[in-house]
Write a structure and sequence with these properties.
Length: 234
Amino acid sequence: MFRHITARSLAEGIEKSMRALAEYSHIEERENQDRMNEMKEIQLLLDITEPESEPFISKAMPCDLKTLIQYEREFLDGTADDLGWKYTYHGLYSPFYPKVLEELRRNIHSRRAVIALGQGDINFTPDPPCLQTLLFSVVNGALELTCLFRSNDGVKAFPMNIQAIAALQRKAAGELGLPVGELHYIANNFHAYQNDFDQLDSYIKLFDRYGDDYRRKCYSWEQYMKKKEEMDNE
């Protein structure tokens, strides 16, 4: 059964999703690369109503702000495409991204602006992509994005994944001349590996410790943009 969560901002969505994983998960033994591993897992359906709103970026993630921005650039610009990896998300979706823009320019009401990342036999290799689908649609004059993950690490990957996908939504909306609409994030298997249970607990303690003091548990849009500017000038 999917846990349906609605949040206004990205940071609020991350917190609510992690809390749901900690509170409502069940334990399953799953294959993890070449071994079996106990996992806490739920099915997640997360609706972010205002992806550009504050509080913007949760500090409950396994990296600092600079590393997050580097990851976004890998996702948006393909800065890791030539590093010899089997694939990158950018390498999988980018050949079809111009077609998405073309389709929505052709017909703003289209339901065909879809990119399937897990094409062909790639899902049956030892390292299939977790992100499977990106669906762009215009609702009430704003660009919405729906993403589907077959499997999503809720501790080590999710906070960075959702930020990068939101950045892609902002990019597409800007190129289409549209405002940013809702972001819909679906993870069929949203999980924490056994060796990350303590890290998940530490994030929950972070949320509880600072409560509504978002300055202590989140990065603001201003901090994010300042760090991007610093990196551009390096």
